[in-house]
Amino acid sequence: MPSQFEKRTCRPRDHLEAIGRRYPGAWKAADDFRVDRGQGLPDWADWCYLPLAAAYAIVSGGGPNRVPIRLMADVGALGALMAWRVTQGIYRFDPALYERLIDTPVSGDIPHEILYRLPEWCVYVETPGLQIAANPLHGFFAHLEDDPNNGRVELRLVLDAASGLAPLPLHLGAWSLAESIQRMIDTASVQALGLGMGALPVGQADALRPVVEPIISLLLYLCAEAAEIGAGDRRPANPIPKRTKRGWRLFAADKPTSWDVGVRMGAALRAAYHAAETDGGAAHAGPRGHVRRAHWHTFVSGRRIDDEGTPIPADRRRRDVRWVPPIQVNLPNVDDMPAVIKPVK
């Protein structure tokens, strides 16, 4: 049993401090790269804090230097931590909502445009109960990569496992989650062969899917328009640059900020479950309260009949696929639930 006087630690903050000691000039270098954006350096999208090339330059020492294989994981970890350092947001889902989200399958095409709406450049999400390779997965960092050299967009995950930080890049586009994982494996295999390491084991994509799919569900909720994050007017956001003698600068957060996610939705779920259990199965009872799974919906638009009066088949009309966020069914009105405000530690 842990001692009551045992010092509580903040894992993402510990990782930030550790990599800062390993690369002591990283934070200043990140600021300098941001200042040179679109001037001495290529431009990149606003939803990307820094392209991963910046982390590569820091880990390698810059110039023509190459990052050795043993330090490749540091590139992904540093890229995430440079972006997370600015806001230091830690996201904790209400347990009832969390359980429903991690069980929600991600089917159809990944709505990569939705992911551009991450509440901060990089988020850290706690993942109680999730595992990777039979070991606890404490949480994960997530940020977006905009590679100005090849235009590739990636969702960059850094898994916070018991064994350490494990970068995991997913290439985004108009394809399924399964294909995103397979593309990652294929790219990694090509790179591994180029480094003389041999191809990655067959079937690794299938092993990654049950790890990645719950993570994507949690991120999709954070990016949804109706996501319940924080309380009242206080919501996460990227900082606004301030004018200094050296030009416009971003100032990093002094300490982490905890964000409660889905508190009122979780309360509504628990209330609905309790009502269903105490109702005794009465005939008048409606369907049990639940959150209808987030899903893809296809909208067919355009002309139904051509100029000659002949019906136009649906497969020849315009088809748009949109992501429909979780919908509450037969739940107490979330707006009527009391807001819960917890002090930030």
TrEMBL record:
InterPro entries: AcrVA2-like (IPR058915). It holds the Pfam family AcrVA2-like. This is Uncharacterized protein. It comes from Azoarcus indigens.
